[in-house]
Structure to design on (228 residues):
């Protein structure tokens, strides 16, 4: 399912009564198309010292209703801790984990600290999106791909050139939905793929060519991803 604002608000009211003793005031609600998170609780402090809370849930992927519900509950725990100014060691510290475990036990939920999409969900995401990729071959022969955040392309390009463990790095532009499953990175993070899988999934990709701080899209690559 892909949640709506009405759905999120309805679930908030239901869980507020069931799990939080109706102790939470209703925040603002918003659905987004973000792929970097499932849910987020935003707290904004105003100049007069008042605070505004907003519960965000992503509808970028089609997920089961249980996952969406658990996402709302996850963010409601954050909201409770923020609203009542309860000290915790970190965003998912002992207080958060204790509340999460209590709700999971008492109400048969499956709230987690982080969510990893299953293979079926990853494969179902067939939207065409732009991917800035570096096909990488390491000095030990392993191969894979780095998926760059758009704002970090030049920095990661330089980092690949300077990384001694990388023997070959080929920068490419691809719209293949296969790469939707990989988060866009701001640091050097390689996802391992076999050479034959790289060759298959990068078919039709275009080479990226750089001159100084300017990058342009070049011709399609040949069947061989890496030059001999």
């Amino acid at each position: 399912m892909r949640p709506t604002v009405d759905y999120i608000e309805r679930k908030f009211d239901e869980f507020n009564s069931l799990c939080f003793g109706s102790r939470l005031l209703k925040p603002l609600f918003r659905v987004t198309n973000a792929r970097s998170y499932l849910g987020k609780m935003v707290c904004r402090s105003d100049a007069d010292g008042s605070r505004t809370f907003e519960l965000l849930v992503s509808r970028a992927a089609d997920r089961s209703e249980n996952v969406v519900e658990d996402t709302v509950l996850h963010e409601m725990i954050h909201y409770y801790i923020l609203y009542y100014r309860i000290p915790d060691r970190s965003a998912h510290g002992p207080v958060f984990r204790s509340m999460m475990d209590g709700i999971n036990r008492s109400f048969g939920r499956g709230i987690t600290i982080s969510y990893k999409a299953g293979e079926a969900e990853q494969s179902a995401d067939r939207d065409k999106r732009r991917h800035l990729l570096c096909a990488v071959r390491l000095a030990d022969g392993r191969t894979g791909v780095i998926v760059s955040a758009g704002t970090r392309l030049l920095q990661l390009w330089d980092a690949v050139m300077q990384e001694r463990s990388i023997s070959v790095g080929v920068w490419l532009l691809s719209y293949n939905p296969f790469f939707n499953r990989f988060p866009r990175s701001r640091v050097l993070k390689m996802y391992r793929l076999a050479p034959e899988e790289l060759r298959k999934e990068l078919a039709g990709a275009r080479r990226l060519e750089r001159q100084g701080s300017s990058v342009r899209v070049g011709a399609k690559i040949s069947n061989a991803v890496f030059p001999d």
Notes: The chain is about 30% helix and 25% strand. The longest strand covers residues 166-174. The chain has two domains: 5-120, 127-220.
